[in-house]
């Protein structure tokens, strides 16, 4: 998401632009079983073209390359596009949003969205995704979600949430409303995969910095919040005195076919 593009939530644009390095350091990739489910449901492979929409720093993009499909990325934030270009030199990367995809009609076989559909204007995004998909094409959505059944992880959320403001979250399920209204796509399929991200205590801090509304906070407020995170990691029985911390996740995978 980038402030040079008028459709994008300005706080998110500012936060993601500031947090690109933290995003790379602190965010997990997607577990193999989740990637395999997308590959199977979207029939990814050689001879197929897949668009990774709102591609971020390319964590999902890299997994798509591994399917043998031809991959194209669209990402609004200039700093994140640069990260993809550095890491995945053969993937074309374009500036654009879900509501204004810079590709031709019926130009791709599949579209994927990682960690982002809840930011979109759903009705407009589905119309654009439908436009660029070829007949029989599919849409895949994936989210890594922190497992808050673990006490210290729930405490992380408690530290952050008072600062969310109007930043959307996929947890509310509001993103589903566009699918309930649309006639452009069939019903959503769903699968979930559980996995653990192992990272250093300081990378846990980077994980929190990578949240757009945290990165966009005024400096003093952000330092105070990150101080609480460091104290939690240093003192909680599940994380203290650990060179490597286990941060558990649930990955939600959704898919739908073009009608």
How would you characterize the largest beta sheet? Answer: 7 strands, mixed
Examine the secondary-structure arrangement and name the CATH architecture of the domain at 10-147 and 167-197 and 248-257: 3-Layer(aba) Sandwich
Stated plainly, the CATH topology of the domain at 10-147 and 167-197 and 248-257 is called Rossmann fold
Average pLDDT confidence is 91
Q: CATH-wise, what's the superfamily of the domain at 10-147 and 167-197 and 248-257?
A: Vaccinia Virus protein VP39
Number of helices: 11
Task: Offer a few descriptive terms.
7 strands; seven-stranded mixed β-sheet; 39% helix; 11 helices; Rossmann fold; disordered N terminus
Give the secondary structure arrangement, pairings included.
Blueprint: H1 10-18, H2 20-26, H3 32-41, E1 49-53, H4 59-65, E2 70-74, H5 78-87, E3 93-94, E4 108-114, H6 122-132, E5 133-146, H7 151-160, H8 176-181, E6 189-199, H9 201-209, H10 212-215, H11 219-235, E7 245-257
Parallel strand pairs: 1-2, 1-4, 2-3, 4-5
Antiparallel strand pairs: 5-7, 6-7
Helix pairs in contact: 2-9, 7-11, 9-11
Overview of the structural elements:
This protein is α/β, with parallel strands linked by helices. The protein has a domain at 10-147 and 167-197 and 248-257: Vaccinia Virus protein VP39 (Rossmann fold), CATH 3.40.50.150. Helices cover 39% and strands 22% of the residues. Helix 4 (59-65) links the parallel strand 1 (49-53) and strand 2. Helix 2 (20-26) packs across helix 9, helix 7 (151-160) runs antiparallel to helix 11 (219-235) and helix 9 runs antiparallel to helix 11. The longest helix has 17 residues, at 219-235. The chain is globular, with a radius of gyration of 18 Å. Mean pLDDT is 91; it is low at 1-8.
């Amino acid at each position: 998401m980038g402030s040079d593009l008028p459709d994008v939530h300005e706080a998110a644009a500012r936060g993601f632009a500031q947090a690109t390095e933290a995003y790379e350091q602190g965010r997990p990739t997607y577990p193999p079983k989740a990637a395999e489910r997308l590959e199977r449901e979207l029939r990814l492979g050689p001879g197929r073209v897949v668009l990774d929409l709102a591609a971020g720093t390319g964590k999902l993009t890299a997994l798509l390359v591994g399917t043998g499909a031809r991959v194209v990325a669209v990402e609004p934030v200039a700093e994140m596009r640069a990260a993809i270009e550095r890491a995945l030199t053969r993937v074309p990367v374009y500036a654009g949003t879900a509501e204004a995809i810079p590709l031709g009609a019926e130009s791709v076989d599949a579209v994927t969205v990682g960690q982002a559909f809840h930011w979109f204007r759903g009705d407009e995004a589905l119309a654009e995704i439908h436009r660029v998909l070829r007949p029989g094409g599919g849409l895949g959505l994936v989210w890594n979600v922190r497992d808050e059944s673990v006490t210290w992880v729930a405490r992380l959320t408690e530290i952050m949430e008072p600062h969310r403001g109007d930043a959307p979250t996929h947890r509310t399920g509001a993103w589903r409303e566009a699918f309930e209204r649309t006639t452009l796509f069939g019903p959503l399929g769903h699968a979930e995969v559980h996995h653990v991200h192992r990272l250093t205590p300081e990378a846990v801090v980077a994980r929190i910095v990578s949240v757009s509304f945290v990165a966009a906070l005024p400096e003093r407020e952000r330092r105070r919040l990150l101080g609480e995170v460091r104290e939690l990691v240093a003192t909680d029985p599940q994380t203290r005195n650990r060179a490597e911390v286990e941060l558990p996740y649930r990955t939600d995978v959704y898919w739908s076919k073009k009608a």
